[in-house]
Amino acid sequence: MIDKIERNSQRALAGIKDGMTVMIGGFGGAGQPTHLIDALIACDVGELTVINNNAGNGETGLAALLLAGRVRKIVCSFPRQVDSQVFDRLYREKRLELELVPQGNLAERIRAAGAGIGAFFSPTGFGTELAKGRETRRIDGRDYVLEFPLTADFALISAFKGDRLGNLTYRKTARNFGPVMAMAARVTVAEVQSVVPVGELDPEVIVTPGIFVQKVVPVSQDLA
Amino acid sequence: MIAKRTRDQLAQRVAQDIPEGAYVNLGIGLPTLVANHLPKDREIILHTENGLLGMGPAPPPGEEDYDLINAGKQPVTALPGAAYFHHADSFAMMRGGHLDICVLGGFQVSVTGDLANWHTGAADAIPAVGGAMDLAIGAKSVFVMMEHTTKDGASKIVERCSYPLTGIGCVTRIYTDLAVLAVNGQRGLSVIDMVDGLTLAELTRISGVALVMA
Questions:
Q1: What confidence score (pLDDT) does residue A223 get?
Q2: B122 partner at 20 to 30 Å CA-CA among A14, A81, B31, B56?
Q3: Does A104 sit within 8 Å of B134, measured CB to CB?
């Protein structure tokens, strides 16, 4: 029987090692898998490359991971926020490398990795300093920049409901990067608000099919 | 006496030009104000980059749901008929040319419609681009909404942008506290309207670039 449910969140991250690349879902706080991030901090691994839309808010979640000194490099679109003080300080002290990617290119590079695309041409960023030195091409009169996929060893995402097969639904705008990150990583771990029996999720409304998910961690029953 | 538009009057002026049935993205900052002035008799669908079509106003105090936010990470509501989607689909709506209009803030716009609005290039500034570059090149029409001049009186409408670019030749119209300008590719800017008390000669002097009446 397939059973991807793992109630111990640290055990769900087994195999994570120094220097790995980790995608972390969320747009600001919405969809951020704070439970799994806390487990990652407890795993005591470092030199990580993190892919996220932002670079942490306040001193919890992703910001706490940065504060713990576990991250070498962050790939994101919008690090600067009113409460991104942890990132701001580490970046200014040159203790954190930043790869800034326009948000749509970030999402599509992640999607491309999950879809087995070798590279693609995007019009976003053409002629700007974020595309400096990159291969370009004019197609049908429009200019494009060559973009490469973004893969990861692990994706940590947050979903609403999940079952033991790894099927997931999301809640409102907390969906954001979850579905594409789930496709792109070698191992995807999803924290969910609740685990439901197989067959309860309507196949018409499953957003992430279980094939993309390796572990499902219920957040309310972690100590069970 | 030049009757400069207030921020709300500017938002109202932009809103006037958004037609019935349009799919629209309002950028963070000043453009967000446009939502308050959309004519009630038009059905206009608002898109937010983090995965929602059919965005409604902020919820009443106490009813905030932090799984339901806008691009500025503020709590919003979803109107009847709204749809949620993931980030790659959301940006396909921009890049794929499905959005009719986006309204963006600006640091500078050039006479040929280049836009600079993401980074001042200052050495100590932390760069952040978000969805600005995707919106700039993606929507069918790109409206830039900004003050006509900086606090020091320098024109934000320029021959060539000195700040790092967001997109090349991407702006359709410029809405400022003084005027509404159309971008006409290599043919330069034309004035659609200007506020009371202003002449074309005076607007040209303030702008520091060649202008003609539309």
A1: 43
A2: B31
A3: yes
